[in-house]
Write a structure and sequence with these properties.
The chain is mainly α and 95 residues long. The protein has helices spanning 10-22, 27-34, 38-56, 62-93.
C-alpha cells in the first residue's frame, strides 16, 4: 500500500540541502533523519548549488519583475476600459 505524498516546506528543503552541502553528516543519515529518499537530498543539493548564483546577482530576476509589472499595468488598463464600457452600456440600457 502506498503512503500519501508529503509536501515539504521550501525552508526545510533548503535546510536539508545546506546540511548536505556542509557534509557534517552523510546524505544517508540526513535522508533517514528527515524521512526522505537519499536521491532527493542529492537533487536538492544540486538545485541549491545551481541556484545559489541568483542570490548574489542583482540582474537576475529584474527582467521577470519588469515583465510582471508591465503585465500588471496592462491588466489594470484593461480593467478600467471594461469598467467604462460596462457603465456606458448600463446607461444606454436604462439601468
Amino acid at each position: 500500500m502506498r503512503r500519501p505524498r508529503r509536501k515539504l516546506e521550501p525552508g526545510l528543503k533548503a535546510k536539508i540541502a545546506l546540511e548536505a552541502l556542509r557534509e557534517q553528516s552523510s546524505v544517508a543519515d540526513l535522508a533517514q533523519r528527515h524521512n526522505v529518499h537519499p536521491v532527493q537530498v542529492y537533487a536538492w543539493k544540486k538545485q541549491l548549488l545551481e541556484q545559489a548564483v541568483r542570490a548574489f546577482d542583482p540582474g537576475v530576476g529584474a527582467e521577470e519583475w519588469a515583465l510582471a509589472e508591465k503585465e500588471k499595468a496592462e491588466l489594470y488598463a484593461k480593467i478600467g476600459e471594461l469598467t467604462v464600457e460596462r457603465d456606458l452600456l448600463a446607461r444606454r440600457s436604462g439601468r
